[in-house]
Design goal:
The chain is mainly beta. Helices cover about 5% and strands about 45% of the residues. The chain contains 1 helix and 20 strands.
Length: about 350
């Protein structure tokens, strides 16, 4: 297994294109908001047992069934990645671990995964695409115990069957991105967090695979940046600055993180969460024509605190459209601990009190 310090020495950042930024107009932004808003909170759909915190949902469809990749930490020892299944997007059953702790190495105690190459079309199949006959996920990994203990790096894993609750195969080349590489940008000097990889078959940036991820400079300062690849293994940072950032005007900074990118009409739409630059932790979005220049939505949040189960935080989106309904899965923090909850674009009868999974 490669060491963190030795990976990809002597690297060069790809500069942003010289073409001027094209902002997305207010009417188009409002149209996107109307299509993706989820004002109806359904309730908690997955919660852990005693001492367990669950987080970071990623939902996809496979062979006419729904699956969710999510992470869990027990007693804040470290992250492992789990798989759950559902027939209706409402009732979920945990199937098992797909990224467990390692015996040793750079990702010994942290393995927080999210599926890659999910259908980017909206509405679309919500399925995962294969590359080299493999299904892929990217994950943040770390060698130290604790809750997101720095430094964290990004690795990749694959499987031939994403519905099977068994460990995915981790790349021997891992980690593919780390804060110790020579091209590490200022906003990711401390650690690298969750990533989203899309397959842009138009090669808008000259590469088929584009990764968005948030990096941290200091506690409370997280920005979203880009990397690109021709083969899902060798990644090159794209641009010397973040593409989505908030809170620069505030001394305490702010977090923009956990991006999910889809295509609605001629616009790229990035769902992401914000924290600290406005009250609470919430989900919002930004839009782009070119994947590089993003216009941030400044209107009503897609989800924010309001219920006892999400009174502290309502954030970290996994959003999809299915049969005319938008389903917005998110991490909720409140009177039930850290759980996964659901909001929708149309009212759906919530589960009875006390009968949450």
């Amino acid at each position: 297994m490669a060491s963190v310090a030795a990976v990809h020495e002597d690297r060069q950042i790809i500069p942003f294109p010289s073409a001027p930024a094209r902002d997305v107009d207010a009417t188009s932004m409002q149209s996107i908001y109307v299509q993706v808003k989820t004002p109806y909170k359904y309730g908690v759909v997955i919660k852990g047992g005693p001492g367990e915190l669950v987080d970071s949902p990623n939902v996809f469809r496979y062979q006419n069934k729904w699956y969710m990749v999510y992470i869990e930490t027990k007693n804040e020892v470290g992250y492992q990645t789990y798989l759950a299944s559902s027939d209706d997007l409402l009732h979920w059953k945990t199937e098992g671990v797909i990224l467990p702790f390692s015996d040793s190495g750079w990702d010994r105690w942290q393995a927080s995964g999210g599926v890659a190459l999910r259908d980017i079309n909206w509405p679309g199949t919500n399925e995962l695409e294969t590359y080299n006959s493999k299904y892929w996920l990217s994950y943040l990994g770390g060698s130290l115990k604790g809750y997101e203990t720095d430094p964290l790096s990004i690795g990749l894993a694959w499987t031939s069957n994403p519905a099977e609750a068994k460990p995915w195969t981790r790349l021997a080349q891992n980690p593919v991105l780390t804060n110790r590489q020579t091209d590490t940008r200022d906003f990711e000097q401390a650690t690298l967090y969750k990533s989203c990889i899309i397959w842009d078959k138009a090669r808008s940036l000259g590469y088929p695979f584009v990764m968005f991820y948030n990096g941290k400079k200091l506690p409370g300062y997280e920005r979203i940046g880009m990397a690109v690849s021709n083969n899902m293994i060798d990644w090159i940072r794209y641009g010397d600055k973040p593409v989505v950032a908030n809170g620069e005007e505030k001394q305490e900074g702010g977090i923009s993180g956990d991006p999910q990118v889809v295509k609605i009409g001629n616009l790229w739409v990035m769902f992401y969460f914000g924290a600290f630059w406005e009250p609470g932790a919430f989900d919002t979005f930004a839009c782009s024509y070119d994947l590089v220049h993003w216009t941030k939505w400044s209107g009503e949040k897609l989800i924010k605190a309001g219920e006892p189960y999400d009174q502290q935080a309502a954030h970290k989106p996994s959003i999809l459209s299915f049969r005319g309904v938008v389903y917005h899965f998110y991490c909720a923090v409140g009177n039930q601990g850290r759980v996964i909850a659901l909001a929708t674009s149309q009212p759906i009868s919530p589960p009875s009190p006390g009968n949450h999974p």
